[in-house]
Amino acid sequence: MRIVTDWDDVPSQPHVVTIGNFDGVHRGHRHLLETVRNHAIHHGVASLVITFDPLPAEVLAPDHAPLRLTLTEQRLRLLLACGIDRILLIRFDRQFASLTPREFIDLLVAATHPTEIIVGDDFHFGRGRSGNPSVLRELASEFGFSVSVVTRVEDGSTPISSTRIRQAITEGNVSLAAELLGRPHALVGEIVAGSGRGSQLGFPTANLAVFDRLLPPAHGIYAAVAWTRQTWYPALAYIGDRPTFPGAGYAVETYLLAESVPNLRGETLTIYFIDRLRPDRAFTNVQELIDQMQQDEQQARQRLESVMSSWPPPLVAALHAPLEGVHLTHGSPERA
């Protein structure tokens, strides 16, 4: 199997190995992964990614852990789409976090037989993040593998990082996030019952209960593409507190721009954010809101016409590929 969840299940053969969270599997990650794949091909061995679930910060600092760019299963699909031969998905817990850098490498070497370990220049490992590329090189000379350190990819003059992408998303700049990710940012969730207000306004929406600590964009109206029941839909997405209706509360809603839509309650829906059309705002009356929503719909249809003609892009298609070797459920990050 290409995905394993136990050190003992890694085939006893040489590997070129990399290690990391890889949340989002953004352009910088993919540059590193391409290096891993190419070195493995050159040396005639398999490539292996070691990654974690839950993510370390969700265990070590749960109150301060950043929201995710991808579900674990999305992360695995994107890693495989980079041409990686095998993934070891490790359950990260406090016991694992207590390993010293030497103890971690001892475990890694025994299980994966690395000929080479390739990491980014900001890589840390072991108890208290005490290991770094210099420590890794010291251990490499003892354990008998080589080390390569890959410099971070820059967009403009700033390195591409998950932190930078999260900032763009929280600011509503989903087009910049898409540029750095190499694909649009997405939310995934279950369609749940809403108040029915959208239908009353002439814009029936699917209300989304978002899965697994995924990071929502800033409040506002977005041109989007939705996936549910094996079908793509151009869509208008809303994120916000519905200020025109005091007390209505926070919602993630999607209006599918289709002639007819089946009853989708209980279905899984994925929303890909293409462009932010405007921020959220309160309207003085319902008719003013309806007029604005009609303008939003027209603008979204115009924006999405060219997008839908070549949809889905390759990395989005990869996110909906079958996933072998691991069963995951949504909910608490402690699930795996």
Automatic annotation (TrEMBL):
Its EC number is 2.7.1.26, 2.7.7.2. Belongs to the ribF family. Pathway: Cofactor biosynthesis; FAD biosynthesis; FAD from FMN: step 1/1; Cofactor biosynthesis; FMN biosynthesis; FMN from riboflavin (ATP route): step 1/1. One of its GO terms (molecular function) is riboflavin kinase activity. This is Riboflavin biosynthesis protein. It comes from Thermomicrobium roseum. Keywords: ATP-binding, FAD, Flavoprotein, FMN, Kinase, Multifunctional enzyme, Nucleotide-binding, Nucleotidyltransferase, Transferase. It is an enzyme of class 2 (transferase). It catalyses: riboflavin + ATP = FMN + ADP + H(+); FMN + ATP + H(+) = FAD + diphosphate. The keyword Transferase applies. GO terms for biological process: FAD biosynthetic process; FMN biosynthetic process; riboflavin biosynthetic process. Residues 180-305 form the Riboflavin kinase domain. Catalyzes the phosphorylation of riboflavin to FMN followed by the adenylation of FMN to FAD. InterPro entries: Cyt_trans-like (IPR004821), FAD_synthase (IPR015864), Riboflavin_kinase (IPR023468), Riboflavin_kinase_bac (IPR002606), Riboflavin_kinase_bac/euk (IPR015865), Riboflavin_kinase_dom_sf (IPR023465), Rossmann-like_a/b/a_fold (IPR014729).
